[in-house]
Every structure is written in C-alpha cells, then in structure tokens.
Amino acid sequence: MEQVHLFTKKLKPTHISHALSFPTHALDAFSFPEGAHTMRFEAVDSTDNVWGFCLSSRLTGSYPKPVLLRSSWRRFVEQKGLVPEDRVAFFMERSGEAGGMVRRYTVRAERKVMMLMGQDVWVDVEDVPLYGPLN
C-alpha cells in the first residue's frame, strides 16, 4: 500500500469555528459522483477511530474552493479539543490490488509541544497532557 500526503494545514480560528478549507490540489484524491459538488468520505485517525467528513466544492467562481463542511468537521474539532495553531494532516493510502484502486484516507490532529534544535516538534493531540501544550 502506498501512502500519499494530501496536505497539512495549521488551524486558524475560522477553521475551528466554521469549516476547514481544503487545498484545491487535494481534490484529485477524491472521486466526486458525476455532476455532484459534495461527497462523503471516511478517514481513520491515529487511534483507529473512523471519522465521516463531507467535502464540498463550490459550483461558481474561478476555482472550486473546497471545504470540509462544518456539519462533519465540527465533531472532529470538538472531540480532539483542537485550538488555533494546532494542525491537521490528511493522507491517502492506495493499492491496485484485486483489479481496482482501493483508497483509504487517514487524518492526524497534531499540536506543537516544543522546539528542539530549531525545529518544531509536533505530536498527536491524544498524546498531549490535559493541561495543554508545552511552551
């Protein structure tokens, strides 16, 4: 199985309170039904929980402007305790076995816990102490 990094995004306050904007290039990893501008997909997190997301792209304008809709994104944000400056990363695993392309999506929610030798150190939010990030 080949793992492809789709994108990593540092969260802003609007990502926490509303929707997560999706990079346009990441749309190539999703198969929208013919004529549709929304689709549901599942992603597995680092603790093997499955999250259902709804990805939408606009019908008008010069580019699709994809977002994860608040209705599906907000549950993930709340359950993970995400705050501005945390980050999320999406990946796709694919395999050409059994005569077809199998896709499995994964999502990681991470928090910066320190800087070590000039590099940010990020860990899964589940591994961060309950009292919050370390400075």
From TrEMBL:
Compartments where found: Nucleus
Lineage: superkingdom: Eukaryota
GO cellular component terms, semicolon-separated: nucleus
One GO MF term attached to the UniProt entry: DNA binding
Major location category of this protein: nucleus
Keywords: DNA-binding, Nucleus, Transcription, Transcription regulation
Name this protein carries in UniProt: TF-B3 domain-containing protein
